[in-house]
Amino acid sequence: MRNLLTVEVEEYFQDEGFADNEDRRNWDRRASHVRTQTLRLLDLLDLRKRRATFFVLGWVAERDKNLVREIAARGHEVANHGMSHRLPETQSPREFRLDVRTAKRLLEDASGTAVTGYRAPAFAVNRRCPWAHEILAEEGHLYSSSVCPPRIDGDGTGQTTPWKTGSRRNILELPPLSHRLTGQNVPIAGGSYLRLLPLRAVSEAIAAMNAKGAPALLTLRPWEIDATRAGSQESSLVRFRHWVGVEEFEGKLSTLLKEHAFGCVRDWMAKSPYESEDHAAPGRGERAAV
Ligand SMILES: [Zn+2]
């Protein structure tokens, strides 16, 4: 079964552990590495003949339209990661709509392709922003990958396979891969979990998801294949979560791409429109008030 590879195109300092503590106005003062890291990732995907969905941050697209163009030109899907990596729940519905609309237009202009997918920062569409899916559908998105299923890492729904949501059930939500480990539903699709777990455990989780008839969705950030960027300003916990396993990750990713079939969401949706049971997810039945 074809699985789904997704990438969040952003700088390492835009991760939540940093963004919580840092004024976004400082971002332009930092050295940018996202172009170099993304091109390196694109080369790896070429080598393995795999396509991915790239959720590009509007902040990056504003500064480097050619990078967005390059991603699309190399056969990958360009999708929406909002403008400035703000959690939906920290925005009003009106602000959220403006954020996703602005980023979508920017990415469509830069890529020359329709942008139909959205990923919230930190998979943070939850009960505190029940209007999010409705707004995404109204703004022309066909799918979202923005809800973390395991309850241990926030207030996810517990749903591990895709489901349709929104008041008209017209937007598909694609949760990141999770797997039961030590009695808990652990989000292993990306981040420190994916970097630390043995390859065998990741492959088992992919097989278990495929056995449910659903694709396994993995996610990564371009900085995760660049160990030279390890920062020194963050707390030790943030430093651990952010950088652990980075040195070995490119090799591990290369093996995963070799051993499993991966593609982008756009191609997968075109070939196998997903029918699922409805699910009481955030946003269901809620009407956006803006
Ligand atoms: Zn992100």
- Strand/helix succession: EHHEHHEHEHEEEEEHHEHHEH
Overall form: globular
Q: What separation lies between the terminal Cα atoms?
A: 40 Å
Q: Which sheet architecture does the biggest sheet show?
A: 5 strands, parallel
The helix content, as a percent range, equals 25-40%
CATH 2nd-level architecture: Alpha-Beta Barrel
Oligomer: single chain
The CATH topology comes to TIM Barrel
The CATH superfamily is identified as Glycoside hydrolase/deacetylase
Query: Uncertain runs with pLDDT below 50, 5 residues or more?
Result: 277-290
The whole-angstrom Rg is 18 Å
As a percent range, the share of strand residues is 5-15%
Task: Describe the 3D structure.
- The protein contains 11 helices and 11 strands.
- It is of the alpha/beta class and about 290 residues long.
- Strands 1, 2, 3, 10 and 11 form a 5-stranded parallel beta sheet that branches. A 4-stranded mixed beta sheet has the order 4-5-7-6, covered by helices on one side.
- Helix 6 links the parallel strand 4 (about 115-120) and strand 5.
- The longest helix is centred in the middle third of the chain and has 19 residues, at about 95-110.
- Zinc ion (ZN) binds near residues 10, 81, 85 and 121.
Present the secondary structure layout.
Layout: E1 3-9, H1 16-19, H2 34-48, E2 53-56, H3 58-63, H4 65-73, E3 77-80, H5 93-111, E4 117-118, H6 132-138, E5 143-144, E6 163-165, E7 171-173, E8 178-181, E9 184-187, H7 191-196, H8 199-211, E10 217-220, H9 236-243, H10 246-259, E11 262-263, H11 265-271
Bound molecules: zinc ion.
